[in-house]
Amino acid sequence: MIASMMLAAINWHSVLFLVFAGLACAFAVAVVVADNIVRMAFYLVLSLGSTAGLFFLAGAEFIGSMQLMIYVGGTLVLLVFGVMLTAQAPFISIKTSTNDRVLAGVVGAALLVVLLQAAFSVEAWRRPGVGEVANPSATPLGMALLGVRVDDPPAGTSPSLVRSGYLLPFEIVSVHLLVVLVGAAYLARAKRRRIPRGIETADVAASGGPR
Amino acid sequence: MNPLNPMHAPTVLASLFAVNLLSDPVSVTHYLVVGAILFTAGIVCMTVKRNALGVLMGIELVLNGANVNFVAFSSQYLQGEQTASIGLDGQAIALFVILLAAAEAAVALAITLNFYNNHSTVDIDQADDLKG
């Protein structure tokens, strides 16, 4: 009887939030604690995937799916390739000295205290949500990226207020992404090894003719 | 009882972490706590790791923690009656952060591979060529 009452009182949205939040935080801490670079990459994938679940629970479906596709599917695959290309035996796990670990732990704990104090400081943020949400749709975000706002203005502002879209930032980001990818391809290209003239002829002479 | 009274702060904290956690709807503060933990983990990761790719993973965690906060503030689902969310702006900023993180990861990875080709190591303690 009591158990069924308690079961009825459970808010499953909160339970799912706790599951995803616990997974995201636990794997983020695991990234810090782990020494092996390959395991760190794997824990990072799980942490970012759980964060996508948090985005879905906050009603930001488009951001959550973009997180899964761009972040987990693109950026982390790139990172895993970097790990594989540099994973020589001495660099798989580079140990940090205990003094540095303790110092970073103290600084991190102080930062965490400040951030948590800020998170709990505003009373309006602690008020639970009303749980009402409009129909999930990517249209307002897509139209805003095209420069047209079709979403409702935030409460408390005058409805006649002109609000800007995101067309200019969208263009800047797209050109930025293109430039960055060209630059990355230029930086990481396979170079021909250049040997100075004198050394090359001496090397050829020492090995007894051209190879 | 006035919840703004600092004397009641411990009771508010205690009630937040008791049974209510399972039955109460999620508020913005829940998300802020998750964002704070992700951000701190990323900062510690950036400072502690000696592998250049480990530092890169710390940056990803920091950006992700900031994204959690942006999405929480933009969500209408998490806000109470009187509070106004920042609306679509938060989601748009989160999207831009994800795209810029992808660009940053590509360039940082290219620099790391270049460093690895030239120095045969990814230990950032060895990257002291510019030391005077």
CATH architecture classification of chain B: Orthogonal Bundle
Structural shape of chain A: extended
Number of strand segments of chain B? 0
Q: Can you write the helix and strand succession of chain A as a string? A: HHHHHHHHHH
Work out the largest interface and the residue count of each chain: A-B, 99 and 89 residues
Number of helices of chain A: 10
Helix content of chain A: 55-70%
The radius of gyration computed from the alpha-carbon positions of chain A, rounded to a whole number of angstroms, is 26 Å
What oligomeric assembly is this protein in? heterodimer
Please, what is the average pLDDT of chain A? Answer: 83
Query: Which stretches of chain B are low in confidence, meaning pLDDT under 50 for 5 or more residues running?
Result: none
Radius of gyration of chain B: 20 Å
Low-confidence stretches of chain A: none
Sum this structure up briefly.
The complex is a heterodimer of chains A (211) and B (132). With 211 residues, chain A is mainly alpha-helical.
Description:
The complex is a heterodimer of chains A (211) and B (132). With 211 residues, chain A is mainly α. Chain A contains ten helices and no strands. The longest helix of chain A has 25 residues. The N and C termini of chain A lie far apart (87 Å). Chain B is an all-alpha fold and 132 residues long. Chain B has one domain: Helix Hairpins. The mean pLDDT of chain B is 83. Chains A and B meet through helix 2, helix 3, helix 4, helix 6 and helix 7 of A and helix 1, helix 2, helix 3, helix 4 and helix 5 of B.
